[in-house]
Description:
The chain is mainly α. The chain is 74% helix and 0% strand. The chain is built from four helices and no strands.
Amino acid sequence: MGALEFGIEPSLVPLGVSEVDRDHHELETLLAQLSIASVDGNREHFTKLFNDMIEHSRDHFAREEILMRKGRCPSLELHSQEHKAILDRLARYAHALMLKRQLLRLDEIRALGTWLQRHADTADKNMAAHLRRHYAPSGISV
Length: 142
Ligand SMILES: [Fe+2]
């Protein structure tokens, strides 16, 4: 069964910040893999993927926050609050997964994909526009 059948396909528009675009692609891939694992019901595989996604999300948000701090991005605080809110949601799911052995349902995984899409289209897009201006012409790097 392919990821496209779950309505989760790579759809994020590249923002022109290579680290961020690469991370987003990886997050989308993990969400698609989680959808498949949720339907398959293999708890061990699902748990590994979910833990990978939490770790990747933490690292990705930290990279963005470093870029914003170095680039004096005015939206740093609000943007970081969005990161914290989704990490809190992921932690609640991780708790249920560990204690109740409860896999995320497909609609819950889709909602994470919707969050990522909305966040990338708003907060990340604004951040990228600021960073491209701030770092030009030397280029952006963490
Ligand atoms: Fe972000």
